[in-house]
Structure formats: structure tokens, C-alpha cells
């Protein structure tokens, strides 16, 4: 999208006002997924498979159905028939199969039946009376083993057209890209380092479990309240899985207690609706934490091989990577994304990358903040660190020497427009952290990171009130303060105070289709649409002023919240404030609103550089992160405090992934750590303050220069921390998480 | 299973409810008293989103039974503000953007208030260890700790 009038001087944008929903969120008033009630409401509960892989021989729910408190039991037969197609073409089938098992259960925790009863306790009790006969099948949970010739087949026919002949049926998608001649490049190198890396699956770890309240009548009309990153995708998917018309299901997004990609699909929502349809009453369904771990969106585990050649001066001559990602019992592991992002920060003459999407008996992976990118960055940036160590190069200088810039051909194909990687590296070099002395036992790590960012389908409406205030209706759930950035952008265009703007997350019946709050797209895409909707309203305000003054509309301009006569009419009339125009809008032509809808495509890619100091205790193997600095290009920070928050949150999740978090499966294929005590995310005493530097290299694709900031922050930490730990311990760490037992083993083998 | 009658005091108001002996205090607060500020993040006492105080002591309400509340004084996030005047912690949390999604905020506010009542001058390390039972996945704790420390300083100056 060509935008000729990019703004660079701002009144509201770049300030740090209180968020509009602050009061609700500090008083307990904000209503999240589990905070809804409805008259006549029943409570649901879901029966889950204890087996990693099993054929369902028989389900007998008669004893549960006989209980007077039980009002409905559903199994797969209570959902619509959805066609099966290979790969991601049949995603509705994949989601349905994940929401409620068909012929087989495919992972520990896979749903097989559900109950609605008069209380949550009664529903849970009833589950114990449902008898399921299983024929247990061989299972596989490891990505490398799932590709071996004798691995159990999860599902025949799941592979799409991209997979070369002769691969195991568990390999379901294949990606290959690059340019140049890598063999020639390796021949030019003074040093070639080749190594293999492994990362374990982690969970997004949002503190709010999935929760919903659904009501569906036999007339095919329904209502759904749920915690989601995108209520239109929930609407579309639930309608397909229940065989009803999309528009007949109205979905309202609750406040959302974290998502990080994990709430971009549905799990319990279609089940609540199916139960409601059968019981003819509203049904509330809330997951417990163990269900969240066992049956919702972990990220992929990965196994990766990297080979990079470098000259003595630090020039990369060739780079090659193979990335095998396990995404559970369904297609979707982002091996393609890992491959495309892994070398993206560098301007390479010769590069080749291969990505595999592999199925195993684990829950269906879901997006997690820059899905696929952190693992690839860990592998690539570890090898770069090793090359720097062996060639005696400064890690920031080496990266500056190879950094991609405007006009560079990206490793994944396109040519970059204006980007800010070099600026983040220069800021890293100038930052006091980079030159601060290290204590004995400490190591420092550097890493760059890349994420594409996304536009997506977006629709925003803005309506002015008689008193001169404005309401903005957006369709992207506010997951971290986006109401504030929308209000700032609308204020900037309308010229009225931030406080006079109310931003509402509209339900699916009140606005056109909106994509999910993902891909770091909200401030970019909903922001762009808010700006355009406000400009649309300003056009109408100018028309009313022109009519009042009896001058042509192109002789009216909008300045500081007022219509002002311009050109030959300049100074003929006093400026007309917005509130004076809206005060009598009913008599001058009716309500004044603005609207904009589009699929904006100028999201603007994003880069960051992180600096980490870590200290390793050789006695216990425990790692402490002692200092952390995030430097990232935001394009333009609309509300800098919330931009900092995104940087800090991404770093903290990366620290957890690097040092402690992992899905641990037993030989029986069951998840062994499905509560927060055993799957330990970082707590306050684990972390230092996280310093941030906001670099602003405007994105040419947004009227104010915004680049999304949500995801890139989790891309560098795995590698930066691994490099810091490797440098502190004096041994290269090739597997994440670097938990104390792995550190001790690495020190022992040194 | 027959239900038990409980009389207790929540945020200064005397309340009554009937509960199953298996129901937690959190269930009773949320489902019987409609006080949905306390959240269930884990149900195992690991996340602190359900933090309340019982007779002045900080507890995870998911680890206490509803019947155990008989005769106790319970304080929840809904009782932190003094009428329409926010508690200084609430003001600072908004000012510092010490929340992103806000699901952990009620529990963290209850826990932080409890900290400052016991220790008006905590070190950063003491604040971090006190709040180690309250998981936040969004913020990395940086702005939370800053908001708590600044509130503590402001309250000390005011007293």
C-alpha cells in the first residue's frame, strides 16, 4: 500500500497516558472468559484420553446420562461432518478432530466425550461414569523418531503436495528455499562450523485457562462468549464444526488473560455449543490448568542442523540449515517459518534452508509468539557465536558486517524495504551494557532476531457523539493495552483529547470480519484502519463546515480538532471545533461516522538485538540471568510504555524457554508435568530488571510508521542466553532448555 | 451430598452461602458471591491469581475450602479501593503499565498490599521473593516490581 503522507510530528502519539481499561483491571471488575453467567446455565466437563495413541472401540455413556443432574452428553457424532483434506487445506477437519476425537485418540489429553450438568462438580462426577473401551496403539512423541521408517503412522494421507516422495507419512509439509550456491560459498570460507541443536516444546503459558459460555438453539441461532485472540475465527470455525450458518452465531470476546498465539483457534467452544444444542440450555465450559497443558497449544519441539562458512574478516560466505519441527498429531508445525526466519537478519550471497512439518502423538501445536522463529535463531546464532569465538571476532561487529539493510535480498526471497536491524546493532554497541565488565563465572551473549509481522483482514468503525466525543469499534481483542494505542491514533487525527475517545472491542454482529490479534498486527492493522476511519469522519466534518460556510469542501482543512477555511477563504471564518459540528449534526445531514476496511499488506518486517549476561553455578548447574537488554525497532512507538512491556514480556518468555520450560513425556507417551509446579515459568525472583531500547525506523507501510512489536522480542532470547551460558560455562550448549541437569552433564563432558 | 451453611465476612460485608464440602473458597467467592475478581489460573496454588487474605494472612483461595471461611475476615481485590478512591498500588499499576492482559493483576495487588502492610520498606529482592508466588506471563515483572517499590516509597513519605 502506497502511503504518500506519512506523519512524523505528533501531538498524542508517543505519549504515555493511562490505559482506558485500567480501572476495570485493577479493581477486579474486568470480565474475563470464566467470569460470565447466564440464566439457566449448565456446566460442562470434558473426558480426555489417558493414552497417547489408541483406537476408540466403544463409548458407553448410559450411566452418566442416567444421572438426574446430567442434561447432555456429546461425542464426535454430535458434530457436523467436515471433509478431510491433506495438510492445512483441511484445517476445519483438523480442528474438529482435535476438539473431539473420531476413530482414534491421538495424544494424552485428547477429548473423547463431554457432559453438561447442573453444577461443575456434578459434571466432573459424571465423567467418571462414562466407559470408553480403547485399543492401545504404538505411539511416538519425538520428532526425529517420528520420521524413522518404523515409526507408528499417525494418519495416512495427511501429507500435502509439498512433501517429496519416499518420506514417512508423518512428514506432512516440506519447505525449501534460498539462493546462490552454498557449496561454492563453503569452499570460499576460512572456517566452516557445522552443528546440531534441539529445543523442547514449551507452552504459551497464559495465566487464564480457556473458558467460554455458549448457547445454541435447535433453530441454528447461537451466542458465544469466550476468551479468544479472534472472535471471528471462533465464529467461522464453530459454525463449520456445528453445521450452522456463520452469521447466525454471534461471538463476543471477553477480556483475554493472555494468549501469545495459543488462543487463535478453538478447543472447548464448539463443545460448549454442541452440549447447549443438545441440552437446550446455555453451557459454560472452563478448562483446568492440566487440561490447558495436555490439550492446548504447545509450541513445536525442534531438531536442527546448521552449517555456516565465514572468512577471517567475519564475512559469511554460505549458510545452510535443516529444521525439523514436531507439531503434534496434526499438520501445522511451522518448519517453513523456522527456515524462512533463521537467516533473515543477514545479507547472504549463498543460503539454503529446508523445513519439515512432522506429526507425533502430542497435542496440536498452536502459534506461540513468532511461531517457529526462536528455535531457528537459537541454532543459527549459536553457530555464529562459535564462529566469532574461533575467529576472535566481536559478535556485534560480525553481525554488523553481515546485517541485512534496505535493498538486501532476504534469505527467504523478497527484497527488504526500509528496515532497522543495523540501527539495533549500533545501539547495542553503544549501550553501556555491552562494554560493562563481566564478573568471574559470567558470560555474555548476543543474538539478532527477525519476524515478518502481519497485516490481515481488518475492519474498524468510528462514530462521533453529539457532545464531541468519539467511540471507536475495533475487532481485535485487546491483549496488552491496544485500546490505548487505538485511542492515541484516533486522537491524533481527530484532534480531540485521548480521554474523549472510547475504544470498544466489537462483537461479531457489530462489525465486519476481523482477523485474529496475532502476527503483531493489532497496532499496525487496526491502528491503520482506525486512522483511516478517523480521516473518513474528518472528511464528513469538513463537508458540514463547508456547507455551513457556503464554501467548497476542498477549501476546508482540519487542524487541531477544528475545521478551518483555507486557500482563498483563509481567515474568512473562525475555526469550527469538532464539538460545534457534532452538536447539530442531526439537523445538518445526520450522524457522522467513519469506517475503513482492508487487508493492509505493508506490515513491515521487524528486527531486534538482545544482550544477555548469565552466571552459571558449577555446583548446581543453575543459571542466573544477571543483566538483560532488549533493543528492537518499533517503527514508531505509539505508546512507548506498552512497547517496552512487549519487549520485556518477550524476553521473559524467552528466558523461561531457554532455561527451564519443557514438555516432558514418559515412555508411556503421557505428559509428566501438566501443572505450574512442574512446568515452571519464570517467577519474579528468577528475573532481573529488563532494560529496553526502542529504535524507531519508520515502516513505510503505515501512516505513522508503526511496525508490530509483539513477537520479535521472543526470537533472540533463546540464542542470546545460550551464547551467554556457553561462554560462561566454556562449553557449547546445543539443547534447550538449559536446565540444571543438562548444564551439569555438559560441564562433566567438557 | 448435602450442602453446608457458611457465614463469613468479605470486604467488610457479612455474607452467607451454601456450599458442597468439596468446593474451594475461590469457587464460593466467584460462583456464590459473584466476586469474580479472584481468578483460577491453576487450581493448585502455583499461580497466585486467586490470592486473597484471610484474617490478614495471604492465601491462595483455590487451596482453601469454602467451609473453612466460617467466621473469618476475607479481603479480595474488590475491597482494595476505598470506595471511589483507588489504593496507591492500584494507581501505580495503571501509571506504570504494570499489567498487560490483567488476569494476574487482582492476585498481585492483593499480594503486594499484604507485603507493604508487613514490610513498608522492602528491598527489590524482598519484593521479588514475596511476589514469587504470583505468576505473570506478560510483563517479565519489571514494571510490576517498579510499581510496588514506588508505591512503598510514596506510602512511607505520606506516613
Can you put this structure into words, describing what you see?
The complex is a heterodimer of chains A (750) and B (159). With 750 residues, chain A is of the alpha+beta class. Among the domains of chain A are: 22-30 and 455-598, Aldehyde Oxidoreductase, domain 4 (2-Layer Sandwich), CATH 3.30.365.10; 372-453 and 604-748, 2-Layer Sandwich (Aldehyde Oxidoreductase, domain 4). In chain A, 28% of the residues lie in helices and 23% in strands. In chain A, strands 3-5-1-12-9-10-11 form a 7-stranded mixed sheet, sandwiched between helices. Chain A has a 6-stranded mixed sheet with strand order 7-15-14-13-8-27, sandwiched between helices. A 4-stranded mixed sheet of chain A has the order 16-24-25-26, sandwiched between helices. In chain A, strand 14 (316-326), helix 10 (335-342) and strand 15 form a beta-alpha-beta unit. The model of chain A has no long low-confidence stretch (mean pLDDT 97). Chain B has 5 helices and 5 strands; from the N terminus they run ββαβββαααα. In chain B, strands 2-1-5-3-4 form a 5-stranded mixed sheet, with helices on both faces. In chain B, strand 3 and strand 4 (57-60) form a beta hairpin. The relative contact order of chain B is 0.15. Chain B starts with a strand and ends with a helix. Chain B has helices at 25-32, 88-95, 105-118, 124-130, 142-158, and strands spanning 4-10, 13-19, 51-54, 57-60, 73-75. Helix content of chain B is 34%, strand content 16%. Chain B is an alpha+beta fold and 159 residues long. Chain B has 2 domains: 4-79, Ubiquitin-like (UB roll), CATH 3.10.20.30; 88-158, DNA polymerase, domain 1 (Orthogonal Bundle). The interface between A and B is large, with 60 and 60 residues. Chain B: It holds the Pfam family Fer2. Chain B: This is Carbon-monoxide dehydrogenase small subunit. Chain B: Keywords: 2Fe-2S, Iron, Iron-sulfur, Metal-binding, Oxidoreductase.
Amino acid at each position: 500500500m502506497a502511503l504518500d503522507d506519512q506523519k512524523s510530528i505528533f501531538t498524542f502519539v508517543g505519549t504515555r497516558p493511562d490505559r482506558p481499561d485500567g480501572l476495570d483491571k485493577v479493581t477486579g471488575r474486568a470480565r474475563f472468559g470464566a467470569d460470565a453467567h447466564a440464566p439457566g446455565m449448565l456446566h460442562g466437563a470434558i473426558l480426555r484420553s489417558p493414552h497417547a495413541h489408541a483406537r476408540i472401540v466403544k463409548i458407553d455413556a448410559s450411566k452418566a446420562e442416567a444421572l438426574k443432574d446430567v442434561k447432555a452428553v456429546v461425542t464426535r457424532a454430535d458434530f457436523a461432518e467436515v471433509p478431510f483434506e491433506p495438510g492445512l487445506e483441511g484445517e476445519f477437519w483438523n480442528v474438529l478432530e482435535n476438539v473431539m476425537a473420531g476413530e482414534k485418540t491421538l495424544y494424552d489429553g485428547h477429548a473423547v466425550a463431554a457432559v453438561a450438568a447442573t453444577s461443575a462438580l456434578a459434571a466432573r462426577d459424571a465423567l467418571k461414569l462414562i466407559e470408553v473401551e480403547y485399543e492401545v496403539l504404538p505411539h511416538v512423541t519425538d520428532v526425529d523418531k517420528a520420521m524413522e521408517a518404523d515409526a507408528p503412522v499417525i494418519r495416512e494421507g495427511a501429507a500435502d503436495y509439498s512433501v517429496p516422495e519416499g518420506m514417512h507419512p508423518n512428514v506432512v509439509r516440506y519447505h525449501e528455499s534460498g539462493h546462490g550456491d552454498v557449496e561454492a560459498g563453503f569452499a570460499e570460507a576460512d572456517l566452516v562450523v557445522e552443528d546440531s541443536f534441539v529445543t523442547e516444546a514449551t507452552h504459551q503459558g497464559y495465566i487464564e485457562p480457556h473458558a467460554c459460555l455458549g448457547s445454541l438453539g435447535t433453530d441454528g441461532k447461537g451466542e458465544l462468549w469466550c476468551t479468544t485472540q479472534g472472535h471471528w475465527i471462533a465464529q467461522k470455525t464453530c459454525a463449520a464444526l456445528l453445521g450452522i450458518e456463520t452469521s447466525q452465531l454471534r461471538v463476543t470476546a471477553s477480556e483475554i488473560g493472555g494468549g501469545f498465539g495459543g488462543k487463535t483457534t478453538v478447543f472447548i467452544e464448539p463443545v460448549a455449543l454442541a452440549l447447549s444444542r443438545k441440552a437446550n440450555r446455555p453451557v459454560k465450559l472452563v478448562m483446568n490448568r492440566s487440561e490447558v497443558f495436555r490439550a492446548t497449544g504447545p509450541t513445536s519441539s525442534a531438531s536442527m542442523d546448521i552449517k555456516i562458512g565465514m572468512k577471517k574478516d567475519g564475512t559469511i560466505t554460505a549458510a545452510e540449515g535443516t529444521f525439523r519441527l514436531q507439531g503434534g498429531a496434526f499438520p501445522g508445525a511451522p518448519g517453513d517459518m523456522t527456515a524462512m526466519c533463521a537467516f533473515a537478519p543477514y545479507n547472504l550471497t549463498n543460503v539454503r534452508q529446508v523445513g519439515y512439518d512432522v506429526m507425533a502423538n502430542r497435542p496440536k501445536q498452536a502459534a506461540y509468539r513468532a511461531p517457529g522463529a526462536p528455535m531457528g535463531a537459537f541454532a543459527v546464532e549459536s553457530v555464529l557465536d562459535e564462529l566469532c569465538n574461533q575467529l576472535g571476532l566481536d559478535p556485534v561487529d560480525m553481525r554488523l558486517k553481515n546485517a541485512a539493510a534496505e535493498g538486501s535480498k532476504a534469505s527467504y526471497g523478497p527484497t527488504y524495504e526500509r528496515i532497522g536491524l543495523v540501527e539495533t546493532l549500533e545501539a547495542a554497541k553503544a549501550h553501556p551494557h555491552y562494554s560493562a565488565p563481566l564478573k568471574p563465572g559470567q558470560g555474555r551473549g548476543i543474538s539478532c532476531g527477525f519476524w515478518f509481522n502481519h497485516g490481515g483482514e481488518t475492519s474498524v468503525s468510528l462514530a462521533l457523539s453529539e457532545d464531541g466525543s468519539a467511540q471507536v469499534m475495533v475487532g481485535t481483542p485487546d491483549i496488552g493495552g491496544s485500546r490505548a494505542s487505538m485511542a492515541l491514533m484516533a486522537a491524533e487525527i481527530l484532534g480531540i483529547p485521548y480521554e474523549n475517545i472510547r475504544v470498544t472491542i466489537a462483537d461479531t454482529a457489530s462489525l465486519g470480519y476481523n482477523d485474529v490479534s496475532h502476527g503483531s498486527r493489532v497496532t499496525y492493522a487496526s491502528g491503520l484502519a482506525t486512522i483511516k476511519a478517523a480521516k473518513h469522519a474528518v472528511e464528513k466534518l469538513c463537508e458540514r463546515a463547508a456547507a455551513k460556510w457556503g464554501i467548497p469542501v476542498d477549501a476546508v482543512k482540519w487542524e487541531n480538532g477544528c475545521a478551518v477555511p483555507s486557500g482563498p477563504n483563509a481567515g474568512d471564518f473562525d475555526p469550527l471545533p469538532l464539538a460545534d459540528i457534532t452538536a447539530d449534526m442531526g439537523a445538518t445531514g445526520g450522524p457522522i461516522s467513519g469506517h475503513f476496511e482492508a487487508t493492509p499488506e505493508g506490515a513491515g518486517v521487524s528486527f531486534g538485538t538482545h544482550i544477555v549476561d548469565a552466571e552459571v553455578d558449577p555446583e548446581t548447574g543453575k543459571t542466573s540471568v544477571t543483566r538483560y537488554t532488549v533493543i528492537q525497532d518499533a517503527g514508531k512507538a505509539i505508546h512507548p510504555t506498552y512497547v517496552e512491556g512487549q519487549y520485556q514480556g518477550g524476553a521473559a518468555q524467552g528466558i523461561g524457554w531457554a532455561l527451564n520450560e519443557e514438555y516432558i513425556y514418559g515412555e508411556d507417551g503421557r505428559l509428566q508435568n501438566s501443572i505450574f509446579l512442574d512446568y515452571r515459568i519464570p517467577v519474579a525472583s528468577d528475573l532481573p530488571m529488563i532494560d529496553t531500547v526502542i529504535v524507531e525506523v519508520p515502516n513505510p507501510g503505515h501512516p505513522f510508521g508503526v511496525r508490530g512489536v509483539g513477537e520479535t522480542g521472543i526470537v533472540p532470547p533463546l540464542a542470546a542466553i545460550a551464547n551467554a551460558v556457553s561462554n560462561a560455562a566454556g562449553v557449547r550448549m546445543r539443547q534447550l532448555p538449559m536446565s540444571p541437569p543438562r548444564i551439569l552433564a555438559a560441564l562433566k563432558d567438557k | 451430598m448435602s450442602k453446608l451453611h457458611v457465614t463469613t465476612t468479605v470486604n467488610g460485608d457479612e455474607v452467607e452461602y451454601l456450599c458442597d464440602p468439596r468446593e474451594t473458597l475461590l469457587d464460593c467467592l466467584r460462583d456464590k458471591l459473584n466476586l469474580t475478581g479472584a481468578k483460577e489460573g491453576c487450581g493448585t496454588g502455583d499461580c497466585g491469581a486467586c490470592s486473597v487474605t484471610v484474617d490478614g494472612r495471604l492465601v491462595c483461595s483455590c487451596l482453601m475450602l469454602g467451609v473453612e471461611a466460617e467466621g473469618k475476615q476475607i479481603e479480595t481485590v474488590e475491597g482494595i479501593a476505598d470506595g471511589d478512591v483507588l489504593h496507591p498500588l492500584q494507581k501505580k499499576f495503571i501509571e506504570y503499565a504494570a499489567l498487560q492482559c490483567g488476569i494476574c493483576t487482582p492476585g498481585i495487588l492483593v499480594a503486594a498490599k499484604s507485603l507493604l502492610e508487613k514490610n513498608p520498606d522492602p528491598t527489590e529482592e524482598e519484593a521479588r521473593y514475596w511476589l514469587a508466588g504470583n505468576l505473570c506471563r506478560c510483563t517479565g515483572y519489571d514494571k510490576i516490581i517498579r510499581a510496588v517499590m514506588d508505591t512503598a516509597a510514596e506510602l512511607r513519605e505520606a506516613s
